[in-house]
Amino acid sequence: MSNPVYLALDLPQLDAAKALASRVKAHVGGVKLGLEFFCAHGHHGVHEIAHLGLPIFLDLKLHDIPNTVAGAMQAIHVLEPAIVTVHASGGRAMMEDAKAAASNGTKVVAVTMLTSMDNRDLERTGVKGGAHDQVMRLAELAEAAGLDGIVCSGQEVGAVHRQWKDGFFVVPGLRLPGNGAGDQKRVVTPRQARDDGASVLVIGRPISRADDPVAAAIAVEATL
Ligand SMILES: O=c1ccn([C@@H]2O[C@H](COP(=O)(O)O)[C@@H](O)[C@H]2O)c(=O)[nH]1
To answer: What architecture does CATH give domain 5-223?
Structure first.
């Protein structure tokens, strides 16, 4: 089985991001480039990281009217991402158009409820029922829209996997015992997420901010 860990390269400097990815390359299955990286380095930065030969996950969390999101998806064809994110709360038509505009080789997955939010945060946005209900509801919408899968926390992935057997599930908010949670509120271990059905394990700071990122990546790998 290939390594399910995607390293989140949330670093402001392109050279530092390249150096880090190059150091841990043998111990991860891909790299995730998010808003911080893409806003700072754009297409050029993605091409630079792609030279390392790892699959690229573009975590752009697109969320706009369907026509705009479809245009953005077309604009990133050239980058050949393995995975791209949109927000499920953008609605069914937006997700359908995003998937239709994506390259054949790109998995389009919908962010359900950010792992930095708990039930109280969700309620403050006007949504009642808690994380489990919200994730299940948006997973159903994403599947109906023809997406490949969703992003959710490890606390919900088991339930979603039982409902959507062939879905592709991206799980961030992962920590080994002893790692600080930081701003993440719905956290599990990489092993628990994998055992519950995660397809991709997204890990950032526990590796990127470790004193020894290679040792940290090996420590994660050893638990899987
Ligand atoms: O719900 C979500 C969606 C995306 N993310 C992203 O994953 C990484 C997690 O980084 P850590 O340093 O391991 O906390 C980060 O790039 C987020 O933008 C998420 O955390 N939660």
So the answer is: Alpha-Beta Barrel (3.20)
